[in-house]
Specification:
17 helices, 10 strands
Length: 443
């Protein structure tokens, strides 16, 4: 059932690496699943007829996501193939029917799963797994994401009009908040965008929700957003929370973009304040240069301090230009607060929400192709949130727990294959001595 064409090669790929990885991954699950606080989560089901504890069912869904399942039926199949040692380690005693999992997900309030995501991130922060990497403070990048469904409820999924003769289509939209300053690029939250509004109009509410979720801990001080969210009201909302902003700048802000181009557009490569290069296929490379100025301080916006231009140039092996673009950004952060290299790094890190979080969720977990539940937007949102939890678990394991650069660069598909293999063949020797952690109190 699970990618049968390639299943026969899974063991071969896994065994190419140290078998100790199986124990490490099982240890990760044993240690990190209790940090979600699932045992203390609100259970909306009536007491009569409850056959399974809520935490057991949610762990089963997470095991399915972590094991590469493309549907609830495949998640059921995974719970049926767990080794006895893995069952004891994870607290999943036997196969769990896909209908049982679906019924729970469709009635579970999304707030329950978002609190588990927050609890998990707070636990990672306490053990210093989210320290800024190359920057003096935390940076959160926010970006919208939509998943199309053949259903809508005009609450979680917005009705999309495709015209007469077309099937009904709904769009499940969330605002992703990714901690791009950390090595793991964890997802801090996926905040539902109400059907009645849009991404830009919902920015202030999403930011308010994010700040409330992590009140009391110094997790981030800068908020970045692309040009779609660039407005004076959104910038003011960031400053109202005592944070700084970095916003993409394009045509919808004609006065600001014109002044930014007047200051920076004609500067030559020799006048760049920072530069980075990245090798690409066939001997080519991307060259990025930063041009920055404080001369627009207080221009049009009282809280504006710094304007940036990032010039990106793709060169082939012979040094010929094959692609070129310029991007402009506005920030309330004073120019002197970061070095030129750090300013360029902050701009590049902004795209971590798309390149690391969204791309992994789509390319590896196949969210857009396989949302698992398509006829109930609320159930689809529950799976979406648990998929972010699974992404965080693997991302923290890959980028923080692993010590060598080789392990930290392991392909996501390899990790998923290895974990699925470990769950199926692990023995008592593999799980002996693994410590379960005390579940944290819910925030």
């Amino acid at each position: 059932m699970l990618d049968c064409a390639g299943a026969c090669n899974v063991e071969e790929r896994v065994m190419a690496f140290d078998r100790r990885m199986s124990r490490r991954m099982l240890g990760m699950l044993r240690a990190r699943l209790p940090e979600l606080g699932l045992e203390q989560a609100y259970d909306p089901r009536g007491r009569q007829g409850r056959r399974w504890p809520l935490a057991t069912l949610l762990r089963a869904v997470l095991v399915g996501l972590l094991g590469g399942a493309r549907s609830l039926a495949q998640a059921e199949w995974l719970t049926d193939t767990l080794s006895q040692a893995a069952r004891r380690a994870l607290g999943i005693p036997r196969r769990i029917a896909d209908t049982t999992l679906r019924d729970l997900l469709c009635c579970l309030p999304p707030s329950v799963l978002r609190r588990s995501l927050h609890t998990m991130v707070r636990a990672a922060h306490r053990r210093h797994a989210l320290e800024p990497d190359g920057l003096p403070f935390g940076v959160v990048a926010m970006d919208g994401k939509g998943t199309a469904l053949p259903s809508c409820d005009d609450h979680y999924a917005q009705r999309q009009t495709a015209g007469e003769g077309h099937a009904l289509c709904g769009l499940l939209r969330t605002t992703t908040c990714s901690l791009v300053s950390s090595r793991a690029r964890v997802c801090l939250d996926a905040i539902p965008i109400p059907a009645r509004t849009n991404e830009m109009a919902g920015f202030a509410a999403a930011l308010r929700t994010l700040c409330a979720a992590y009140r009391g801990i110094d997790l981030f001080r800068l908020v970045s957003y692309d040009a779609g969210g660039c407005s004076e009201s959104n910038a003011a909302a960031v400053r109202a929370h005592g944070l700084h902003y970095l916003l993409g700048l394009k045509g919808p802000q004609p006065t600001l973009i014109a002044e930014a181009k007047r200051l920076l557009a004609r500067l030559s490569p020799e006048q760049a304040t920072a530069q980075s290069e990245d090798a690409i296929a066939a001997g080519g490379r991307w060259v990025r240069r930063l041009y920055i100025s404080a001369e627009m301080a207080h221009f049009s916006w009282d809280h504006l301090r710094t304007v940036l231009r990032v010039e990106s140039e793709q060169l082939d092996a012979k040094g010929r230009r094959t692609a070129y673009e310029n991007r402009y950004f506005l920030s309330s952060l004073p120019l002197a607060r970061l070095s030129s290299a750090q300013w360029l790094l902050v701009v590049r890190r902004h795209w971590g929400v798309e390149n690391n979080c969204h791309n992994t969720i789509d390319a590896v977990f196949r969210e857009d192709e396989h949302p698992w539940i398509v006829s109930d937007p609320r159930g689809a949102l529950a799976v979406l949130l648990l998929r972010r939890v699974a992404y965080n678990l693997l991302s923290l394991f890959r980028s923080v727990s692993q010590r060598s650069d080789e392990r930290r660069g392991a392909p996501w598909r390899w990790l998923i294959d290895h974990l699925r293999y470990a769950l199926a063949v692990s023995t008592e020797a593999d799980t002996a001595g693994l410590r379960a952690r005390t579940p944290p109190l819910r925030e």
